[in-house]
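PROTEIN SPECIFICATION:
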Amino acid sequence: MPTLEPNQLAIREMKEDEAPIVLDLLKDGFKDTENRLILYVLTRPLALLLMAVVSSGLRFFLNSFVVALVLPVLLTVVALKLLLRRSPDLKHLHAYYSVGQRRLWVAVYDEDDVCGCVALEPRAGEPRTAELKRLAVSRWYRRSGVGRSLLSFSEEQARAQGFQFLVAQVSVVTKAAIQLFESAGYSPNGGQQWLGYTIQQEFSKEL
């Protein structure tokens, strides 16, 4: 989709009746990222080696070669899903983002089409730092400038609330998101690892 004109896109706080739409948008983006990240981890050399070792060991205790082969893969997938789903209960999305300094905004195309969202939360233990959350764009509006508009808007909101730094956790398989943060002046600053592989990069920027 071509880049949207500024007058075609509005960013405002999410309304309560828009929560189901935003929740579906977030689930769609999360599921896509989760599946790609699991495939990425499963195809790393160390992960393949460990699963092969476990599979060989299981063959001494199980009569089925297929079960011994598949079980390590299933256990790895379950472990990754549990690791990736450390998040608040999104069933109560509007209530969660209506308390304190937590806010969730939506990008709306042509006045009524919710095409993206982003949230801002204070970072625990770091009073000068805000954390970017829930940045997602509908698959029909990707590469049209919605993500960049949401990011710029979030920076303005963070400055207005007195924050000096903005950080975001980005999955290593979301290349478009990584390019977006890098082009906006964010620097990589550590991340989350699993089996020695980075699965989420943290980006930070001084506002």
In short: The first helix runs from residue 19 to 42. The helical segments are 19-42, 45-58, 65-84, 93-96, 146-160, 175-183. The chain has six helices and seven strands. The beta strands are 9-13, 103-109, 113-123, 126-137, 165-171, 187-194, 197-206.
